[in-house]
Amino acid sequence: MSTAVSPLAPKSLPTLPPVAGVRLATAAAGIRYTERTDVLLATFAPGTSVAGVFTRSRCPSAPVEWCRDRLAGGSIGALVVNSGNANAFTGKNGRAATALTAELAAAAVGCSESEVFLASTGVIGEPLDARKFEGVMSRLAADAVEDGWEAAARAIMTTDTFPKLATRSVEVSGRTVTINGIAKGAGMIAPDMATMLAYVATDAAISAQALQALLARAADRSFNCVTVDGDTSTSDTLMAFATGAAGNAKIASADDPALAAFAAAFESLLIELAQLVARDGEGARKFVTVEVSGAESEASARRIALSIANSPLVKTAVAGEDANWGRVVMAVGKAGEPADRDRLSIRFGDVRVAVDGERDPAYDEALVSAYMKNEEILIAVDIGLGDGFARVWTCDLTEGYIAINADYRS
Amino acid sequence: MSTAVSPLAPKSLPTLPPVAGVRLATAAAGIRYTERTDVLLATFAPGTSVAGVFTRSRCPSAPVEWCRDRLAGGSIGALVVNSGNANAFTGKNGRAATALTAELAAAAVGCSESEVFLASTGVIGEPLDARKFEGVMSRLAADAVEDGWEAAARAIMTTDTFPKLATRSVEVSGRTVTINGIAKGAGMIAPDMATMLAYVATDAAISAQALQALLARAADRSFNCVTVDGDTSTSDTLMAFATGAAGNAKIASADDPALAAFAAAFESLLIELAQLVARDGEGARKFVTVEVSGAESEASARRIALSIANSPLVKTAVAGEDANWGRVVMAVGKAGEPADRDRLSIRFGDVRVAVDGERDPAYDEALVSAYMKNEEILIAVDIGLGDGFARVWTCDLTEGYIAINADYRS
């Protein structure tokens, strides 16, 4: 497997400040490989609110079911994430492994088992030996520090070629609060769910209910707008934590005006993390934004945009720096959404290639070919029927994707 | 672009006998490349019945619209198919090109323009200069012969690496009749439509209405069960012709018992052609059959089977000879159909790898790894909920697919 960093990776990693009330530690528990950091423990101050959105897979992993069942409690004491094994499709053993992991974490951290949240990422179907956590959990809890964000982002990587981190600072009711986020994910990425693993923590005081509403809304405009290969993981998890350490008057509703700036910063952080995932798409060499306007509705625009973003033929054309807009027409046609061929127009960047259902009379192959050499490509389609708009992000499809996925498990 | 023949191609091409009432001729009209056979003319005896099923794309090509509008007439005099240009997304010019082509063919063959059927395959969005047919049409009509089937199959190829032909001989009301079929297609192949270009001709006497019913039913069990990349062409066309030259009493209904053997042979021929398309999937090295049983309904089984067959992660795992059944679980989960993780079982060939939602207790990695080295792979999933069954065919996803599609247009 190639370990070269994606050419679309940010030139430098941001430095994340501490989030008061959150401590992080990582260790090598030998889940799948020895000598490789593969477990993250995060501990949270008492009373930290928790929210989460999870995969819509009908075959979710054991940790996803564990988290879903405990979300109503509204508070978190510890988060345990391991890489190397997804603990998915592992039956009764899988459920036992989640229970044992939670028991170990609760004892080490000193919280209730129902306040432990879990995630596992890696191979599906291999039994997870949770006893391996036994040897490291106490030390993790003792070692946890406030400035461990980059190490945390690295510990949850699988086929990722770079760690994914983002941070924001914003005012809530006169207090300056921090929002930190980390994510992992490079393949088996598609929307229609809360994609891959991503964790966002803030020291703002926000109720679990408000945080959940905020998270669901922002997920829809960020992680649910990114796709690498249209495949949906059994383990996708996006969680948010609010420790309250900043000391603002606790916000009870996502629509509280005092939360407006926070909500905007929160959403932009999630978009940044989601885009980092597309930028690390397996084998990616180009970052692609697909914009669909003029659809009959926002939902229709989104389905058309995803049909384009998921089309292997569109993605290979981008890889080949070929402005093959005929394949964009194909992808619009197969989306099954209202479309009138004779009203379609298509742009690559600022270059209009098709209008009113035909090649643009001013079509200039040299101009559009030059545009396709860029590392960031915009494909913009106007359906010409209504006001529906959507924007999604993806990457190109290269030989690298095949090489990575044809030998991932072996 | 590689021109090596797919390793999954049949070892030899069948020799197709004549179908009385059908004559074929090919020529190099210079549609896109010079000196390359790129146009097929088929002529039909007066009174030949016609049936067709076409792409469900919302942005169909001009020839698809032309054919749909004329199908109700029920009879065909001539068929013109060109490769090199799809005449899709070509607006008014595209419609004018179909009209001119039909006019030229009707004059050359001596039939009505409304009895001319058309198809174009190749690049989307380039205007098709139908005047190029003018120089070749009369000669094509004069040269047409009954034994031109292999040449016809070759003339409609684009990225195909081998011509696709099949034949059957069967009794209808005491007369022996022939069924011949040809097809083209290698990428931009997905079901939910009548896939790619395929033409089936017989000398049996069958009404257009009966032929249409027969064709729609058989398409659903053949071409609609094959997928290469999940992409849906703007031009997909499957047509059937019945000349009546065999002299059987004309069959008026697809359910006529006299047609039973014919219907079975017709369907098996369509399945053979559809499988040939998957065997020529761009870059394919393995032929994959996906069987889903125990789903809540046949439709549900089919959606799950297609979710597996279209998953890039499943297809790259097969390419890597990796029995990565976790990805099969993932694809079942993302299909959105009823499924209960704890009832799933999965086989690769005869090797059961998972049962009751866990890895098979008798799982033998060496055994299943050996199986994955085969050129033909069966992935069988039992959902454990009901009686719904479906079978679809696909191929693996290799670097070859990327290489072909990243530089197809250039």
UniProtKB/TrEMBL annotation, chains A, B:
Predominant localisation class: cytoplasm
Subcellular localization(s) per the UniProt record: Cytoplasm
GO MF annotation list: L-glutamate N-acetyltransferase activity, acting on acetyl-L-ornithine as donor
Site positions per UniProt: Cleavage: 194-195
Involved in the stabilization of negative charge on the oxyanion by the formation of the oxyanion hole, annotated site positions: 121-122
Keyword set, alphabetical order: Acyltransferase, Amino-acid biosynthesis, Arginine biosynthesis, Autocatalytic cleavage, Cytoplasm, Multifunctional enzyme, Transferase
Entry annotated with the keyword Nucleus: no
Pathway the protein contributes to: Amino-acid biosynthesis; L-arginine biosynthesis; N(2)-acetyl-L-ornithine from L-glutamate: step 1/4; Amino-acid biosynthesis; L-arginine biosynthesis; L-ornithine and N-acetyl-L-glutamate from L-glutamate and N(2)-acetyl-L-ornithine (cyclic): step 1/1
Record EC number: 2.3.1.35, 2.3.1.1
Top-level EC class: transferase
InterPro entries: Arg_biosynth_ArgJ, ArgJ-like_dom_sf, ArgJ_beta_C
Residues annotated as the enzyme's active site: 195 (nucleophile)
Catalysed reactions listed for this entry: N(2)-acetyl-L-ornithine + L-glutamate = N-acetyl-L-glutamate + L-ornithine; L-glutamate + acetyl-CoA = N-acetyl-L-glutamate + CoA + H(+)
Calcium recorded as keyword: no
Binding site for substrate: 158, 184, 195, 282, 405, 410
Functional note: Catalyzes two activities which are involved in the cyclic version of arginine biosynthesis: the synthesis of N-acetylglutamate from glutamate and acetyl-CoA as the acetyl donor, and of ornithine by transacetylation between N(2)-acetylornithine and glutamate.
Subunit structure: Heterotetramer of two alpha and two beta chains.
Family: Belongs to the ArgJ family.
Protein name: Arginine biosynthesis bifunctional protein ArgJ
Gene: argJ
